[in-house]
Specification:
Blueprint: E1 18-22, H1 29-37, E2 55-61, E3 64-70, E4 76-77, E5 80-81, H2 83-95, E6 98-104, H3 110-119, E7 126-131, H4 136-139, E8 153-155, H5 164-175, H6 179-182, E9 190-195, H7 202-210, E10 214-219, E11 226-234, E12 237-241, H8 244-248, H9 255-259, H10 261-271, E13 274-280, H11 287-299, E14 302-308, H12 319-330, E15 339-341, H13 350-364, H14 370-383, E16 388-389, E17 392-393, E18 396-403, E19 407-413, H15 421-435, E20 442-448
Parallel strand pairs: 1-3, 1-6, 6-7, 7-8, 9-12, 9-13, 13-14, 14-15, 19-20
Antiparallel strand pairs: 2-3, 4-5, 10-11, 11-12, 16-17, 18-19
The structure holds guanosine-5'-diphosphate (GDP) (2 copies).
One guanosine-5'-diphosphate (GDP) binds at residues 23, 25-31, 44-46, 73, 131-132, 134, 157-160.
């Protein structure tokens, strides 16, 4: 494979971390490059397929010097892949410390698909930047891009400079620069995020919980954005409410504050232990709640469904029960999540809510002894044998819990190909029931052992 000689040029400091921007033509790579570098250097050309040589620049990310390269582009022609151009871009990938993979929020093409495949070996160092999220109407498109399996997805508008701080924060996090000194060992505290659509009572609940005890705890290196947290103590446990800035700044509605709520929600979920998903009982669910729910499950975070404003119910018959049923029906993916009705306004059932958060957090931190787990696996296998496949029996040989928060299990099986999903659901259910993970997402991965 052709080496990218430009990276080794004398004027490029090879000791600096290398960040490359990659994507098919016309997704906005050079616009982003210019936006980040802050100079209009690379040529922006609206004609698809125009490729350029990679142009490395030294860039100040936070307080760190890094090398930023616009890879130029990957293109398909009638023959399929345009060899030399594409190879050049791809060789850059293996050399990069971080890859910004740019996609267009309006359109996913076969070239994108091809790049997704090429990027698979580098998944851990990719930040997926979904570009052209120019306004609120396009914001929801970000969620679709979670299906590509990247941990880091940021919605941006390179042309309008939106989401750029979030992108920079994510890059910093991935490069692990300054992190250690930036974030001192935190005392044990349960980190909660309060999410939900506007007017569900998030601020009211935050204020109730934290009173005036809101502090600006850290400015993320190199950015001007402060992270505000509120803290409080309940029954001897410390709690932190994350990202209260997103909630509080609302009154001054700066254009891009509420606007980038999807980026914010994603970041907040990542930073939290337990998410409180606020639902206004007088209003019902929003489409976005479902997307948030999916992400929570995928990330293995704890979640409590909070039914707020019960004081506003008319008290006719079993109104609350009907609402609960409806939420359960609409959120099958969160069938394990506790449902707690409260009134943030009147302070009703707040103790119950916090007790629930605490219980969920305990489950997230619970470790199952390997012997205990394997006794169970054996017994569950005796009670209900895995179904027989075309080429013989499936069997779980043994397993182990690989992590807490999120709770993950690794099961060794005799054959991984087509291992029956139904059997995994059976095992997962029993894990919830018998091992004490009734209220949290758990993840099972398989490995073959003969
Ligand atoms: P590249 O081929 O990936 O480097 O893409 P360019 O940076 O040359 O941009 C391709 C086209 O997309 C240009 O017409 C840009 O003006 C446009 N573009 C770039 N970023 C954005 C954005 O955030 N929003 C919109 N609407 N257009 C953008
Ligand atoms: P946010 O946009 O999610 O932060 O919602 P707010 O906390 O600003 O609340 C939106 C509106 O709902 C305000 O007028 C609150 O007073 C009202 N509200 C919040 N919690 C309750 C509640 O438990 N009961 C009732 N009746 N109103 C509430």
């Amino acid at each position: 494979m052709q080496k990218l000689e430009i990276v080794n040029k004398a004027d490029i400091d090879t000791t600096l971390p290398l960040i490359s921007i990659i994507g098919r033509p016309n997704v906005g790579k050079s616009t982003l490059f210019n936006r980040l570098i802050g100079k209009r250097r690379a040529i922006t050309d609206p004609t698809p397929g125009v490729t350029r040589d990679p142009i490395p620049e030294t860039w100040l990310l936070g307080n760190n010097r890094v090398t930023l390269v616009d890879s130029g582009g990957v293109k398909l022609d009638q023959e399929g892949l345009d060899g030399p151009v594409t190879e050049k871009s791809l060789s850059l990938l293996s050399q990069s410390d971080v890859i910004i993979f740019v996609m267009d929020c309006m359109e996913v093409t076969p070239e994108d698909q091809m790049l997704l495949k090429e990027l698979r070996p580098y998944t851990d160092k990719v930040v997926l930047a979904v570009n052209k999220i120019d306004d609120v109407t396009r914001e929801d498109l970000i969620w679709n891009y979670y299906n590509y399996g990247y941990q880091r997805v940021v919605g941006i508008s390179a042309a309008h400079g939106l989401g750029i701080e979030e992108l920079e924060d994510t890059l910093l996090g991935l490069l692990d620069l300054e992190r250690q000194e930036e974030e001192p060992e935190e005392a044990e505290t349960i980190k909660i995020a309060i999410l939900g659509k506007p007017n569900t009572g998030k601020s009211t609940l935050t204020n109730l919980l934290t009173g005036r005890d809101i502090s600006i705890v850290s400015s993320i290196a190199g950015t001007t954005r402060d992270v505000m947290r509120g803290t409080f103590t309940y029954k001897g446990t410390d709690y932190t409410v994350l990202d209260t800035a997103g909630i509080r700044r609302k009154s001054k509605v700066e254009e891009d504050v509420e606007y980038y709520s999807v980026n914010r929600a994603i970041k907040t979920i990542d930073d939290s232990d337990v998410v409180l998903l606020m639902i206004d009982v007088t209003e019902g669910l929003a489409e976005q709640d479902k997307k948030i729910a999916q992400l929570i499950v995928r990330r293995g975070k704890g979640v409590v469904l909070v039914l707020n404003k019960i004081d506003a119910l008319k008290g006719i018959g079993n109104e609350l029960e009907a609402i609960k049923d409806r939420v359960r029906f609409l959120f099958p993916i969160l069938n394990f999540a506790p449902l707690v009705p409260i009134s943030a306004l009147e302070g009703d059932e707040i103790g119950k809510l916090l007790d629930t958060v605490w219980a969920v957090w305990r489950q997230l931190n619970k470790r199952i002894d390997t012997n205990v787990l394997n006794d169970c696996i054996r017994r569950w296998g005796e009670e209900y044998e895995p179904p027989r496949g075309a080429s013989g029996h499936y069997k779980i040989l043994y397993g182990t819990q690989v992590s807490v928060t999120p709770v993950r299990f690794l099961l060794f099986v005799n054959r991984i190909k087509d291992f029956p999903e139904s059997y995994l659901s059976y095992v997962k259910n029993l894990m919830r029931k018998e091992l004490g993970f009734s209220s949290i997402p758990i993840e099972i991965s398989l490995r073959e052992r003969r």
